[in-house]
Design a protein that fits this description.
Elements: E1 5-6, H1 11-23, E2 28-29, E3 44-56, E4 60-73, E5 82-95, E6 100-102, H2 103-106, E7 113-118, E8 123-129, H3 134-144, E9 164-173, E10 176-186, E11 194-200, E12 209-219, E13 224-235, H4 242-251, E14 263-277, E15 289-292, E16 311-312
Antiparallel strand pairs: 1-16, 2-9, 3-4, 3-14, 4-5, 5-6, 5-7, 7-8, 8-15, 9-10, 10-11, 11-12, 12-13, 13-14
Helix pairs in contact: 1-3
Length: about 325
């Protein structure tokens, strides 16, 4: 029997697959540390472009583009040590080899969504309407988490090279608890930019091969990142573990088997475009906002119902 081939993916399926990627861009929380990096100005909207490419080997390659804005929120409910930021989605689209989905036409992205962020990049509470779509909430949480980081100053008496320092930390993301390493260095362009490179050292599926890096180009004068690059690669194990093989052999006369190839390669880039005057906002007064964390519900392939896919054998 030949390998299955995939027909046209529906708009719903394209969005769900894209949500799987947006979950992996680095949604995490940690205890905020004393640092003075991220700081948004009042009455200013910071406009960014986000582009990503997600390749699901043997299935499809998705290209996503969006334009988003961040502006401050005046709210007495904001946690001490955080700023509350409103996320504005100007446009969002996903393109596959044979389809395009304009997400802001398929779903309403204009409703309230804000999040808290500390000066070192820790994401705190998020706020949104109680009857908001799960897909929109997931997408917006992913967009907000593009700014998530653990930015730290050089330690006192550091022994690293001049203009370069590194540190380790524990973080909690949608995939669970993991260890990460950060390296910080001054940009080679001599423009004052500090480049923080995060490398995730552990993965919740121990037998697979994975690589996750997030590169944050921080502008000290602007007090915000001007560029965020993300690389995420995962290859599922092709061979079952010895324990599973032993159980398999006990229950059948057949020999062991290799698992099918499952591989994803994703890269994304958030780029600063401009800042424009826009009055700071106040939260809606109707009182129906939900207070939540940045963590998201799982959006797995099991949610891709069979009617959305066509198989030819």
């Amino acid at each position: 029997m030949t390998s299955p081939s995939y027909g046209k993916l529906s708009n719903c399926t394209l969005m769900k697959i894209w949500l799987v990627f947006i979950l992996g861009v680095g949604t995490f929380t940690l205890e905020p540390v004393l640092a003075s990096f991220i700081r948004f100005k009042a009455d200013t909207e910071y406009v960014y472009n986000f582009q990503s490419s997600t390749e699901l080997r043997t299935v499809e390659t998705l290209l996503a583009k969006s334009k988003i804005g961040f502006l401050t929120v005046n709210s007495p409910d904001t946690e001490v040590g955080f700023q509350q930021i409103y996320l504005r989605v100007h446009s969002a689209a996903i393109t596959s080899s044979n389809n395009q989905v304009l997400l802001n036409e398929e779903h309403d992205f204009d409703r309230w969504f804000s999040f808290e962020i500390s000066e070192n990049g820790t994401i705190g509470h998020v706020y949104y309407s109680g009857d908001e779509s799960d897909h929109v909430i997931t997408a917006k949480k992913g967009m907000a988490s593009l700014l998530a980081a653990n930015l730290q100053h050089p330690p006192d008496g550091m022994n690293d090279e001049p203009g370069e320092w590194s540190y380790d930390c524990n973080e909690t993301g949608h995939e669970g608890h993991h260890e990460s390493s950060y390296n910080a260095r001054m940009s080679s362009d001599n423009d004052g930019i500090i480049v923080f490179t995060k490398t995730r050292r552990t993965h919740p599926i121990p037998y697979g091969k994975s690589k996750h890096q997030k590169e944050i180009h921080y502008h000290p004068g602007m007090k915000l990142p001007t560029l965020v690059k993300i690389l995420d690669h995962y290859e599922a194990p092709r061979e079952s573990t010895k324990e599973f093989q032993g159980q398999f052999n006990e229950n059948t006369d057949e020999e062991g088997f290799n698992l099918p190839e499952m591989q994803t390669v994703s890269d994304g880039q958030l780029s600063f475009v401009r800042e424009i005057y826009s009055p700071s906002l106040a939260p809606p007064t109707n009182g129906d906002l939900v207070t939540d964390t940045i963590h998201v519900k799982k959006v797995g392939l099991k949610e891709l119902k069979p009617r959305y896919l066509t198989f030819n054998t």
